[in-house]
Amino acid sequence: MVERWYPRGTSSAEARLRYYAERFDTVEVDSTFYGLPRSDYAENWAHRTPDGFTFHVKAYGLMTWHEVDERSLHPELRDYAYERTHRGRLRLPEARMLERTFALFAAALEPLRVAGKLGELRAQPQRL
């Protein structure tokens, strides 16, 4: 999409978001499925888009019981108990870890909520 849709020279993430937001009023953020978002990213998203723009955010995989890459863990989550697969993926986190994950996720998205730009939280449930 980057090479075919965005104009030549629209190479930074900021420029791509601004160009996109001039043409659409909503976007689904998929990157949050693979790792917890950072609040400074959410703050930048809010500032770089016009009023009325909405971000629908995909839940972090751990929040929906998906196995996640252990390397994607937020530093505050590294000391909790969980199982690790032979591929280095985390699964079956302890309840306190999951609770902390939800709190970190919500805190990171707070700039979007305050700006009135946070839409749906999209969950892709894990088949058990």
Give the number of domains: 1
Q: Count every beta strand, where a strand is a DSSP E run of 2 or more residues.
A: 6
Which topology does CATH recognise? Answer: TIM Barrel
Instruction: Give the CATH architecture.
Output: Alpha-Beta Barrel
Number of helices: 4
- Chain oligomer state: single chain
How does this structure look, described?
With 128 residues, the chain is of the alpha/beta class. Helix content is 34%, strand content 16%. It has four helices and six strands. It has one domain (11-122): Alpha-Beta Barrel (TIM Barrel), CATH 3.20.20. The radius of gyration is 16 Å and the shape is globular. The strands form two sheets. Strands 1-2-6 form a three-stranded parallel β-sheet, covered by helices on one side. Strands 3-5-4 form a three-stranded antiparallel β-sheet, with no helix packed on it. The longest helix has 20 residues, at 95-114. Helix 3 runs parallel beside helix 4. It has helices spanning 2-5, 13-23, 39-47, 95-114; strands at 26-29, 54-58, 68-69, 83-84, 89-91, 118-122.
Detail the topology: elements first, then pairings.
Layout: H1 2-5, H2 13-23, E1 26-29, H3 39-47, E2 54-58, E3 68-69, E4 83-84, E5 89-91, H4 95-114, E6 118-122
Parallel strand pairs: 1-2, 2-6
Antiparallel strand pairs: 3-5, 4-5
Helix pairs in contact: 3-4
